[in-house]
Amino acid sequence: MSQPRPLPRLLGSLLLVTAAALSSAAAAGQATAASAERAGAVRPLGQIIPAPASVSPAGSPYTLTSATRIQTDATPEARAVGERLAEVLRPSTGYGLPVTTRPAPQSIRLRLSSAESALGEEGYRLKSAPGGVTITALRPAGLFHGVQTLRQLLPASVEADTPQRGPWQVAGGTITDSPRYGHRGAMLDVSRHFLTVDQVKRYIDHLALYKINKLHLHLSDDQGWRIAIDSWPRLTTYGGSTEVGGGPGGYYTKAQYREILRHASSHYMEVVPEIDMPGHTNAALASYAELNCDGVAPPLYTGTAVGFSSLCVPKQVTYDFVDDVIRELAALTPGRYIHIGGDEAHSTSREDYVAFMNKVQPIVAKYGKTVVGWHQLTGASPAKGALAQYWGLDGTGQAEKAQVAEAAKNGTGLILSPADRIYLDMKYNKDTELGLAWAGYVSVQRSYDWNPGTYLPGAPAAAIKGVEAPLWTETISRNEHIDHMAFPRLPGVAELGWSPAATHDWDTYKVRLAAQGPRLSALGIDYYRSPQVPWPAQ
Ligand code: ACM
Fold first, then answer.
1. Relative to the CA of 389, which ligand 1 atom is closest?
2. In this structure, is residue 509 part of a structural domain?
3. Average pLDDT over residues 480-502
4. How far is the CA of 512 from the centre of ligand 1 (A)?
5. In a domain? residue 411
6. 339 and 464 together in one domain
7. Is the CB of 374 under 6 A from ligand 1?
8. In the chain, what percentage of residues exceed pLDDT 90?
């Protein structure tokens, strides 16, 4: 290292002043985060994640009291959103918070209004004043998202499941908010390690707070098949009987899977189920010998290699199998999409890959669903209306990026999941015990600090449907693992998907993120205390 040269006196003192100004700005940032969480402090309107589209602070705060009622429209959807809000607020406040359709003074009101078409499918307006808080939306999803905003405007301790001290105040003013993108996703790999229904529901609860609206479930891979298919029962009884590391694995019965769907739906989240094909299929190939070109079933697999398995493209039974699986899965799926994987098919020739996708995509359409595939699908012929999920890296794969951009120009919609930005299983740094590092380390700042709108050169802006943060589970099986890897990066991905590009700014974002720390703790989320974020002392 070279020796520092003595600085001229004036320049030296200028630098000192600048450094002092910078560090006091940083301290002010910390103070903002910390003071917003002090008992009794009112969080500034708009200091939430994702940042709202428009914030107009005005007037005095609203105070929630033991007399507060939650007044909703008579529609079952508005009532149900009101009940969900009450369920969050009752344990911590200790208040009764009855949900009613009758007018009540100083209440929290949830209103659907057909006149509010400008708010769109998911937008809302929240007005807060001493006389009440009113959330207005065109659709129930907007009310639900408005309720998540209200939660974040209340003190963090409102999330606790035991009585806490108030006061419970919401800053005065108006937030008018709607999302930048319609697809704000998170993916759970329930194949490498099986995750129970309760684990998936817990993750849904946490995703919803940040306005994530798609849950992509990676239901099959080499290490395990996780969804019951009645016409091919060994997929689960045998193919689901293990996982990475040799544990017992598991699978969802259709009734259990419906329970996940119901929980997602009540959180205004669409489940996108994935059956990964033609590669990543060892669990299926091990379960049924006839699916293999040589007619010999391989053993079950509990390692972490990729790219070694393939369905047998020339055999007719392959398509009988795919048809049965897609038919049963489509019948279970209330959402629009079925994800057919298509990544890392290193044991399938290019010619076979194209032939396979040409036969499988129409099966998805036949059962009334729309195809999503990993972006390798753009190397075949994506079906009309299909979405491709980009999972490449910033600095590599330019030819592949160009291929994806070309498909986008031809009408294929894109979901962006760049692995070196928002793969939640990538380690934060060299000291992270969990996770993988094949795409590099992904710090909290790195996962937030990019623009989905300009990420893929040549892709038309209208082709970008949103972002999705995958959590692959080679190293992950427990809730603490999920918490540590998803938080605090997931809120940043949610903000990339929801907030206008004009609000994007790491220095102010990190202060808002810091203020989420006590909230995550109150929710029992054991997040990673990244030193990039000025967390308040707890
Ligand atoms: C992937 O990470 N193989 C989609």
1. 4
2. no
3. 98
4. 31
5. yes
6. yes
7. yes
8. 91
366 and 434 share a domain? Answer: yes
The answer on 337 and 299 residing in a single domain is yes
Mean pLDDT of 346-362: 98
**How far is 24 from 243, CA to CA, in rounded Å?**
51
474 and 453 share a domain?
A: yes
User: What pTM, to 2 d.p., does this model score?
Assistant: 0.93
Any ligand 1 atom below 6 A from CB of 122 = no
Asked if residue 471 is part of any domain, the answer here is yes
Q: What is the pLDDT of residue 396?
A: 73
* Residues 353, 432 within the same domain: yes
Instruction: Looking at the structure, tell me whether residues 296 and 400 fall in a common domain.
Output: yes
Query: Which of 77, 116, 259, 344 is labelled catalytic?
Result: 344
For position 50, what pLDDT does the model report?
98
For ligand 1, atom 2: residue with the closest CA: 391
Q: Separation of 423 CA from ligand 1 center, angstroms? A: 9
**149 and 188 co-located in one domain:** no
Kindly write down the DSSP assignment for every residue of 150-176, as one continuous string. Answer: HHHHS-GGGG-SS-----EEE-SEEEE
At 15 the pLDDT is 33
Whether the pLDDT of residue 454 is over 50: the answer is yes
Cα–Cα separations (whole angstroms), residue 175 to 135, 166, 172, 178, 384: 9, 23, 10, 10, 38
Which amino acid, residue 181? Answer: Y
**Domain co-membership, 244 together with 125:** no
The CATH number for 82's domain is: 3.30.379.10
Residue with tokens 């055999």: 315
77 is an active site residue: no
Q: Give phi and psi for 509, each to the nearest 5.
A: -60, -45
pLDDT tens digits for 396-434?
Answer: 788 999 999 999 999 999 999 999 999 999 999 999 999
CA quadruple 17, 20, 26, 30: dihedral, nearest 10: -140
CATH number of the domain enclosing 215:
3.20.20.80
Residue 8 burial (10 A CB sphere; 0-12, 13-18, 19+)? exposed
Q: Rounded mean pLDDT of 506-519?
A: 98
Task: Looking at the CA of residue 472, tell me the nearest atom of ligand 1.
Answer: 2
Burial of 461 (0-12, 13-18, 19+ CB in 10 A): exposed
State the distance from the centre of ligand 1 to the C-alpha of 299, rounded, in angstroms. Answer: 23
Containing structural domain, residue 173: 54-177
pLDDT of residue 409: 98
Determine whether the shortest distance from the Cβ of 251 to ligand 1 is under 6 A. no
Atom of ligand 1 nearest to the CA of 306: 3
In the prediction, which pLDDT does 1 show?
A: 30
Domain C-terminal end among 144, 177, 210: 177
Count of structural domains, the chain? 2
| Mean pLDDT, residues 340-353 taken together | 98
- Taking the centre of ligand 1 as the mean of its atom positions, its distance from the CA of residue 343, in whole angstroms, is 6
| Residue 531 falls inside a structural domain | no
